[in-house]
Amino acid sequence: MNFLQPFMFWGALAIAIPVFIHFWHQKKGKELDWAAMQWLIDKSQQQSRGFRLDDLPLLIVRCILVLLLVFLMAQPVLEWFKKTDHSERIHLVEPSVYLADNYRFELEKAIEKGEKVYWINASREEVKDLSSVASQQSSGIMYLQDVVNKINKPGAKLDIYLLNNQKVNNQPKVYIPGDYTIHTAIDSSQNYIHNYLDLGNGKKLFVSNAKLTTSDSKAGNQPRLASTALHSGPLSVLVDYKNKSERETVKAALGALSTVYALPFQVDEKIDPRKNYDLILTDQKIEKNSPHALYVVSGNGGKTLKTSLPNVIILDDSLRIQTSEMVNSGQLPEYLGDLLIDHFNLDELKGVLSTQQLEAIFVHAKPLEGNVEGNLRPWLLVIFLIILILERWLALKKTIQKSYV
Amino acid sequence: MSQKRTGLLAADLIKLGNLQLVGKLVSEELMLGVHASKRSGMGTEFEQYRHYEPGDDPKRIDWKLFARTDKHLVKESSAESNRQIRFLLDLSGSMNYTENQMSRLEYAKLLIASLAYLGYIQNDQMSLYSLQDGRVNSLASGASTSGKQAFNKILFGLQKTVASGEWRTENAESGKLQFPEFATKSKEQLVFVTDFLQVGEEWLTLIKSIASPRREIVIFQILGDNEVDFNLTGFFRFRDLETGKEIELQAEAVRDEFKKSSKAYFDMLEEELRIPYVNLVQAKLSDPLGMVLKEFLTRRKG
Q: Tell me, what's the ipTM?
């Protein structure tokens, strides 16, 4: 249950008013010097309690009245959790060897029991054998919402297995209708396999200690690298701009990058249909989207694009000194470098997410059962009125009794 | 009392502020039509001379006076009664109970003053004691305890009394009360004016033990109307006059219980004290004094 106006609960302090009235009424006895006390005292225990009981319902009713009013003003929004028995459990596993090893027991048991286990990836493959993890494409987390939408059934309970790393945090929020449990495994940095780019001549590019590093194969002290490079050979880049100054700026930025990190760029200024480009910088409309390439679209070219693709970066400004703040302050090379790191997943494990951070990513989607608040309010109002009438009746009855007896 | 309630109300009498006058008024009301003549006879206190009449004992002629005046005169003194009347006034805090501006203590004072006036007319010997904090104190007693002097002493003693303290007795635990003042063997009448609201077993035992043919006991129990009928309505804070303890109650809620237990108590008292030489007279603060006394006197005669 949520409240739209939780600060209204300060109003609950008003409960002091009926309590005060209660004790005020108790205080108001006419004083009388009395001698024949013994016959009063004999009965006082019972009678005194009896009197208090007479008054107590009124006090309680008034307290309820105040609380109900406060409750009404706080505008409760009820979520009727349908705690139905989960007929089904569905396990969604991010394809990762580490994760699969970590939860091997649970997952194998689930498979044994006939519960559905899916990899979180584009194909939403059902898992029959955990060993198939090796053949799976990683980077499953970005498909999580998709998988949840397609696979979740009403009444099913989702068990989601994720690697706990910063990648999760880069995700938009994931909306999950129904119940779910998140299981995470922290891939400790010792076991972290550094992705790298083979730049040729035995040079490898990877991120170590949050720094982009180029190393020779001869140099020792290398972090553990993946068995195969994500990309080998020089990076082919297409710089396709109509505006000459924009083209010059971008080329200069690439040149800077290339100089600092010894990145071998092969820069084309005219599109060569035979080539598979790794990085395409353009202000043109994208004719054919190649999924392996990273597109940086600036100016008018970006505005024509309707859908957002993960490998297309759209910049609103054209990349000229006059129009782009980034170019003006000389940040363009750095920005392009970051884009490349992201694109090739060179990034190190940046940190482990706390439980709170994790929970913040997942949102329990509200069931579409109409406006619950709208259903609740009239009922609360009716109860409020009934109790109000009850209170008036009790109070008036008491006054009448007092004045006519 | 089924008699018509007439006569002077205690509430009116108290306004006079004169106990002597009140005693006179009440007594005269009581003895309406009875000629108030004094009995004269032998006694120690000289009153008057009168001429010798045949039949008088010649021994009573004052011969020294005859030598001076050449007249046969007989010395007379007011006839002395051998009746001893002791008034015992309860001075516990509960005597301060007031109803309609009439406190129980005032009523008791008027009652004693009226009785003392009657005793004065009859030349009875009278003394006044108070009962306070479980002790009996003498307020008016002494060598000459009869006639006008005794009456005046009693009135003086009454005027300065103030009621306070609790009704309790030091020997209450042992269940035996001892008052050496009442251990005399002379013939006497004990008039006890009290509210008698919290009488324990020890008091009943004491009264039973000291009541005898020689000692007649009259107990005037003075009660407020509300103490008997409990005609209170509303929410009250009852404060105990003796202990100061307070109780808050809705009067209607306790009325039946109160009446029941008070009636049971009064019945018990009446039952216990229905023994020879003991008279329990219940008086309400609203009863006229004369009526109370008349009832008592007629009952005693009968």
A: 0.71
